[in-house]
Design a protein that fits this description.
- The complex is a heterodimer of chains A (276) and B (317).
- Chain A has 276 residues and is mainly alpha-helical.
- Helix content of chain A is 75%, strand content 3%.
- Chain A has one domain (17-274).
- Chain A has helices at 5-11, 26-67, 80-110, 114-119, 125-151, 159-163, 165-186, 190-206, 218-226, 228-240, 247-274, and strands at residues 70-73, 76-78.
- In chain A, strands 1-2 form a two-stranded antiparallel sheet.
- In chain A, a hairpin with a 2-residue loop joins strand 1 and strand 2 (76-78).
- Chain A is elongated and about 75 Å long.
- In chain B, helix 5 (148-159) runs parallel beside helix 6.
- Chain B has two domains: 13-233, P-loop containing nucleotide triphosphate hydrolases (Rossmann fold); 238-300, Alpha-Beta Plaits.
- Chain B is built from twelve helices and 13 strands.
- Chain B starts with 12 loop residues before the first strand and ends in a 6-residue tail after the last helix.
- By secondary structure, chain B is an alpha/beta fold.
- The chains are: A mainly alpha (276), B alpha/beta (317).
- At the A-B interface, helix 1, helix 2 and helix 4 of A face helix 2 and helix 3 of B.
């Protein structure tokens, strides 16, 4: 009797690393998201794109008039708009990734049965986690690219290094999406999901986005430096202002840890939730 | 349509379970059961809610680990070869989990992609499946606009996109109106004719009688009996049943007298069931002894009676 294509494909993975967990098909999950996006989800994404632009014009030009120039490294002065633009970019990458990986994932997890349907096929939990996080990352990429396309002609972000802000935003989005999805797999109620919003706004306001951390007392500075958005803002700011230093690798390492932790435990949680 | 699933052949065992157990803390959902499903079978798990049917189905579908015993699906252990086993199966869950924001066609498409199937293959398959599910005119419609019966048919069509050898249906017609149920039964019957192995859980005896050629009656995680529907009725019940009602208070009052008149009786809150191969004569005897029921009904025995006999409880409570 004839063996179906689906079985042949599944059998071809026999003996490969993590075969029961990962079927090397996260792209099928991404494709699902892309089709859903084309059928109407794009409007939500568009609204998130406009937000940092509004901040930039209001704060950058309005408040910027009062603030004057800011010193980023000894002797290196930038306009206020130049100072906050990288922070806005990093924050929008974070917001896009978090929104997708928390609220959207929550509905698919609890109400739509999306993951239950996916895991009834030959997909594994890592395919689902990677696909979903990959989509959130893609959203971060769209935001970062759009924002850069608008601010570069205005001379706010300059030079080749400025373009590196885009891959930086992707790493930021990846890291936040991984942790966001992990949190969501533990959330039991809307109230717990609301905490995401409660955390996000202060994270943006106090992570050195609108003013340098040097105005804080030491202890508070250490707290902020332990939080993820600070590192995101630092990467994008350094790159867009052409400040290339070793500490950039440290910031990247911070995000790599977030990604590894997020992905590993999200996969474990998906297994625990749907394939005990 | 040529083939939706591979053709049947012989009595090849597809699923073999021995001493299968599942415990959740102190609660035993499946209590050491043995069963075997052969290729081409239409195998039903019949039992009330909480009998362990869905748990058993999930263990077969490699989405739940067992606590003890052994099970193989096409010779493979679900805990080791999960994705491979799921590639052999078409799963129709109790609650539809279609993507409501996508069209009918796209739902089939994305599901096929989960199995890694090629675009070309899926597009060909979609035509076949839309015809099978009688949804050709709805192909471009978003799922949220479909009726309950259409969604169910689409869920079944979706499960067939990978050409599974075993189609698993968990309570396939719960919540559907009678007309939608009959359309669905007709579709499932066609699959059975094509040799697809069907695994069905249900708490509807008419559904079990319509669709299954072998039934496993389950209660509290155990197998109470296993046979064809006709043989189960032959073994555990009489040919006919007489249902008599005397009014709530008097049902119990006459019970002893009624019991002596036939093979067996069951006293339910609203009526008494009397088991005999000749119920017309039995009814005549009841009346002639001066017990005048307010209503009486003679019917043939059903799986409901089998279940009552085996467990002392009704199937649908």
């Amino acid at each position: 009797m004839k063996t179906s294509d689906a079985v042949l494909i599944a059998e071809s993975l026999k003996g490969r690393f993590a075969e029961g967990t990962y079927s090397r098909r996260a792209r099928a999950v991404l494709e699902h998201r892309r089709i859903a996006f084309k059928q109407g989800h794009w409007i939500v994404v568009a609204s998130g794109f406009v937000e940092p632009i509004l901040y930039l014009f209001s704060f950058g030009y309005g408040v910027g008039k009062l603030v004057g120039k800011i010193q980023v490294t000894p002797g290196h002065w930038v306009t206020y708009a130049q100072f906050i633009a990288p922070a806005l970019l990093a924050t929008s990458a974070m917001n896009g990734a978090i929104y997708d990986s928390t609220w959207n994932v929550y509905f698919r997890l609890k109400y739509d049965g999306t993951y239950k349907a996916m895991l009834a096929t030959s997909l594994g939990p890592l395919d689902v986690a990677l696909g979903e996080i990959g989509w959130a990352l893609f959203r971060g990429l769209i935001y970062a690219t759009g924002f850069t396309a608008i601010v570069m002609p205005l001379g706010i972000i300059k030079g080749w290094y400025g373009l590196l802000a885009i891959p930086a935003a992707v790493i930021i989005a990846f890291a936040f999406a991984s942790i966001g999805m992990l949190y969501t797999t533990y959330a039991k109620s809307f109230a717990q999901m609301d905490w995401v919003n409660v955390v996000m706004l202060p994270l943006f306001l106090f992570s050195g986005s609108l003013y340098p951390l040097s105005i804080y007392p030491d202890w508070l500075r250490y707290v902020i430096e332990a939080l993820p958005l600070y590192h995101g803002i630092q990467i994008v700011r350094c790159l867009s202002l052409g400040i290339i230093q070793w500490s950039l690798l440290l910031h990247v390492a911070y995000f790599v840890v977030m990604i590894v932790v997020g992905l590993t435990f999200t996969t474990k949680r998906m297994r625990a939730l749907f394939m005990r | 349509m040529s083939t939706i699933g591979p053709a049947a052949g012989g009595k090849e065992p597809l699923i073999i379970a021995r001493g299968l157990r599942k415990e959740y803390g102190d609660f035993t959902a499946v209590d050491g059961i043995d069963f075997q499903v052969n290729r081409g079978d239409s195998f039903g798990f019949l039992g009330p809610n909480g009998a362990g049917k869905s748990t058993t189905m999930r263990i077969i579908a490699a989405t739940l680990t067992r606590s003890g015993g052994d099970i193989t699906i096409l010779g493979k252990d679900p805990e080791v070869r999960g994705p491979e086993i799921r590639a052999h199966l078409g799963v129709v869950p109790q609650q539809d989990n279609l993507d409501n924001s996508l069209t009918v066609e796209d739902n089939l498409y994305v599901y096929g992609r989960y199995f890694g199937l090629s675009k070309k293959f899926i597009h060909g398959k979609i035509e076949e499946l839309l015809a099978f599910a009688q949804l050709e005119e709805k192909r471009g419609v978003k799922v949220e606009a479909l009726s309950g019966g259409m969604k169910r048919r689409l869920t079944i069509a979706r499960a067939l996109v990978s050409e599974p050898e075993i189609l698993m249906l968990d309570e396939p017609t719960t919540g559907l109106d009678p007309q939608a149920r009959h359309i669905l039964w007709d579709r499932l019957f066609r699959l059975k004719e094509q040799g697809v192995t069907l695994l069905i859980t249900t708490h509807y005896m008419d559904e079990a009688e319509q669709l299954c050629d072998r039934l496993m009656v389950m209660d509290k995680g155990r197998i109470m009996a296993e046979d064809s529907p006709a043989n189960l009725i032959k073994t555990y019940s009489t040919k006919e049943v007489l249902e008599v009602r005397f009014g709530s208070d008097r049902n119990a009052q006459f019970a002893d007298q009624l019991r002596s008149m036939c093979d067996r009786i069951e006293v339910l809150p609203d009526r008494v069931l009397m088991y005999s191969d000749d119920c017309e004569t039995l009814l005549h005897n009841v009346v002639s002894k001066g017990m005048q029921p307010t209503t009486s009904l003679v019917r043939r025995s059903s799986l409901e009676d089998v279940f009552l006999r085996l467990t002392g409880r009704s199937l649908v409570e």
